Amino acid sequence: MTRTYDSRTGIEALLLDYNGVLGLQPSTAMWTRLADLAEWPDRHLPSFQEAFWAHRSAYDAGQLSDLAYWAKVLGHRPGPRWLRTLRDADTAMWTRTDPRVLDILYRARTSMLTMVLLSNAPAHLSNVLDATDWRRELMDDAFYSARLGLCKPNPAAYEHALAATGVDYPGRVLFVDDREDNCRAAAELGLRSLYYTGQPAQLDAQLLPLLAERTGS
After folding, report:
1. How far apart are CA 20 and CA 179, in angstroms?
2. What is the DSSP letter of 27?
């Protein structure tokens, strides 16, 4: 389900997911490298990814430490050096950004549109993202599941981010995410939502009329 803004009502703020919108999905080579670092039996990538995702929501929500999460993935506790290696390789998989999306958002920023990041992300990744130039330059605020103690599509996650926009009426906020269940939850709270499918033109088409409206061009 996709709900997009109506230029007749206007949009005052964007709530943006990170991974799958601003952030690029990891390549197969990155997954393979992480599986190798984990010393996964027979380098069987599907079973490694299954183990990786099995407890990811709890990790993203801050319910598991780095050590507790990787112990569940591996089936045993890694030593400190191995743990740092796994954590850093895992983090690196999620820090590549799509320059096309960033270009659209930098153009949107010139209209003084409020932007807030709302991402399901573990604590270390959250810290790394906060230190990036694009985060400091584009986002008025950022909310991460590990700090909130809950993940999208929990309504409370949206409510925290919505409050940070300073917009009183949810219908004047556009939420962008690459997961349909997250978009559905946002729409149920009254936000306008765009189910992003990896095509920057899709985002550009939604923002161009808005920017023209705000700048009078």
Report:
1. 9
2. P
Q: How far apart are CA 86 and CA 4, in angstroms?
A: 39
Joined together, the tokens standing for residue 138 give 């584009």
| Residues 76-102: tens digit of each pLDDT | 999 999 999 999 999 999 999 999 999
Give the bridge partners for 19, in sequence order.
23
C-alpha distances in Å from residue 165, one per residue of 14, 173, 198, 215: 8, 8, 25, 20
Q: Which residues in the chain belong to E strands, given as ranges?
A: 13-16, 114-119, 141-144, 173-177, 192-195
Mean pLDDT on 22-35: 97
pTM: 0.91
Q: What type of residue sits at position 80?
A: P
